[in-house]
Amino acid sequence: MTKTIRLTMAQALVHFLTRQMTEIDGEKVPLFAGVWAIFGHGNVAGVGEALYGVRDQLPTFRAHNEQAMAHSAIAFAKASFRCRVMAATTSIGPGALNMVTAAALAHVNRLPVLLLPGDVFANRIPDPVLQQIEDFGDGTVSVNDSFRPVSRYFDRITRPEQIIPALARTMQIFTDPAECGPVTLSLCQDVQAEAYDYPESFFEERVWTMRRPRADLHELKLAAEALSKAKKPLIIAGGGVLFSEASAALDKFASATGIPVCETQGGKSSLPDAHRLNMAAVGVTGTSAANRLAEEADVVLAVGTRLQDFTTGSWALFKNAGKTIIGLNTQPFDAAKHRALPLVADAREGLKELLKALDGYTAPASWTKNAEDGKAEWQKAAAKVTAATNAMPSDAQVIGAVQRALGTGVIALHAAGGLPGEMHKLWQSGAPGSYHAEYGFSCMGYEIAGGLGVKMAWPDTEVVIMMGDGSYLMMNSEIATSVMLGKKLTIVLLDNRGFGCINRLQMATGGANFNNLLKDARHEQLTEVDFAAHARSLGAIAEKAASIAELEAALGRAKSNDRTTVIVIDTDPLISTEAGGHWWDVAVPEVSSREQVNAARKNYEQAVKLQRVGN
């Protein structure tokens, strides 16, 4: 006879989470590191009561914003190279909807997070309840259906026993490198409290590891043949290199073959910046060293990247008409993009097998030397733009100051706006994972919440967050959470008084300065925000630096501070690094009364001719 234990659905869910384990460096640890929760009438009585019962095994963390707490959970998973996961639970209605943006971010970046929004009553007797959206033509719809397109797996739990197959599917998603992403289990609030006799076997401890698929022999043969004929080969390292913990394999592959490496935003820090074959950033925000090689490359080995438009320069970067792309990726959808030769495999195992199949191939010495010379030239250009100045500093000069003050032994985090372009080019990364960019979804407001998640994954490593005033004003509440949890962050806030990046794009496409910088937005009086005072009000240590020299001194003091520290510095909104970079496809109006727009349109029409459609 099957032994059972009677629990509510919510109790069964959280008890199951406590029994899922993984191995990291030979040590067994809980797969789920905790649950972020903001309680409301859709989850406080069910999930809230259940979490209280396991609070010593599965910590519950209180946040101040539902989107932010999901960002923290996602950043934790990314910093853990997808080996560990967090969950996030909300009430119904606005609390649930606040997490949809975060779900989309996780979906784009292929990151695991378990989202547990409360839902309406399955029995529908109290309908319409507080915060319920009613669909006039479909009685089964709630706001949580918004999660469907941004979840790898979505399930609405309308009976307590449904949690058994739903959690089984959840674990399959989280431990499959090809399918990994967000899971949403929409929990009807009455069902959370309903009891069921669950089999005890459902709660048996299980140790999970991410599978490492090996290459198909035929695909491996074709990839090796193509690469062995290459005269100008290039490797693009994407985020999959880090998720696979394949940095050592990539180093060995590049060093043995002499093939230069460039990195996407997600893949940056796959190799140390100091590695002789690391050309650093590629694409729209790339270095001249990397992009020069990309334009000429005859074989491109794309490892663990989804080849989005910033990497490919909107598919205008790779100018060699006879080029071959090899897509080494666990996800067939990504491996075969743009008529690539697919090599469906784990990045680490795929690189090992491909190196063996190449049987001693090395790139022409002239190509490798050309790459090394180009890197030296780029380093001179980068040193010039990051040097200190007494004028209103640029983003690049602030980056240089932070790098000089903190070195490469920190984790640098940023997201959206102008900083990703500058950081991708100019920041010098050290260990794998020391560069954390949210540029897959480019979500403003990710920075502080994401930094908190990274700090929870790496509590003994300094986390420095670089962000603009626009992102800070969008979402800053998790400063208070970081102080409350004793997770120290160093936040460098660059105040350019508006959305400087989009203002520059507006100008570049011929538009008038309009609605981006504060001075160009409709106003009766210009706002003077005292960011340092605001940060102090949330519990942080904060100061404003009047110069690059003062910034470096403040960063020195921040090292010994006992809690989150915010350093504010005014920056120039119009300056960006001209060296490196590549064209990006942003459509310009065909018709306009502005001469500047018409001129930009002519330039745009010439640029799109360089795009390689379908190859």
From TrEMBL:
GO terms for cellular component: acetolactate synthase complex. GO terms for molecular function: 3D-(3,5/4)-trihydroxycyclohexane-1,2-dione hydrolase activity; acetolactate synthase activity; flavin adenine dinucleotide binding; magnesium ion binding; thiamine pyrophosphate binding. GO terms for biological process: inositol catabolic process; isoleucine biosynthetic process; L-valine biosynthetic process. Residues 417-569 form the Thiamine pyrophosphate enzyme TPP-binding domain. The keyword Metal-binding does not apply. Residues 221-354 form the Thiamine pyrophosphate enzyme central domain. This is 3D-(3,5/4)-trihydroxycyclohexane-1,2-dione acylhydrolase (Decyclizing). Its EC number is 3.7.1.22. The keyword Hydrolase applies. It comes from the Bacteria. Belongs to the TPP enzyme family. Residues 53-131 form the Thiamine pyrophosphate enzyme N-terminal TPP-binding domain. Keywords: Hydrolase, Thiamine pyrophosphate.
